[in-house]
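@channel sequence for tomorrow's demo:
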Amino acid sequence: MMSILLSGLVVFITHTLEAVTGFGCAVLAMPFVTALLGIRMGVMVITVLAWILALYFAVVKFREIDWKQYFIITGFMLLGLPIGMYLFRSIDSSNLKMILATFILVVSTHQLYKLGRNIETKPPIRTKTRAVLPYYLMLTLGGIVHGIFSSGGPLVVLYASRQLQDKGKFRATLCLLWVTLNTIIIATYLFEGSFTAPIAKTTALLVPFVIAGIFAGEKIHDKVNERTFSLIVFGMLFLTAIFMLIF
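structure tokens (generated this afternoon):
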């Protein structure tokens, strides 16, 4: 029971943060929850809980979804996802994880510096220019990373923070993305028969902590302005990179 309560505390904190921003709960919660529940159970439980939170916001904030950006992000991530799932089974991914974390750390630090100095945010990139091509590559890499680590969010956020500068659209669109990707992953669990009754019971026990996180995150999201929201987003990216380097 103590492991459930401690996992619940982690779930509440991390899902509150995702309720504010639209990303981050899985990669932040995973090291702690897997240590408490075991890797197999922890990964499945967090995947389902993240899906529940994302589904809530995708439904409730349906009108805020930027469909054009959703299809762009999802399309390019789905190109990379099967590659990542293959690499997960065939390579030593530790070096790749270190490179990715270092890249995210540098970018998030740079963005936090710009926000701290009040340097004006660049406007969204026009999708019909060559300037957007590196960002599309980043999304494809995000799909590969999601297939390997189930945490492609940081690379997606680097694109989405530029193209979705309204905090409501940012959160709603990313949540629909996580619903899409995690539905595929959960369907795989069910098809393989790996989502057992004990895992389902543990997931159910932690759902109230997700609900509490949703309500807490909603209150914070409504009160922060766009600049503070950007600080939270890139601050979470910074923390994500640190977690990836440590764990």
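heads up for whoever presents: The CA atoms of residues 48 and 90 lie 25 Å apart.
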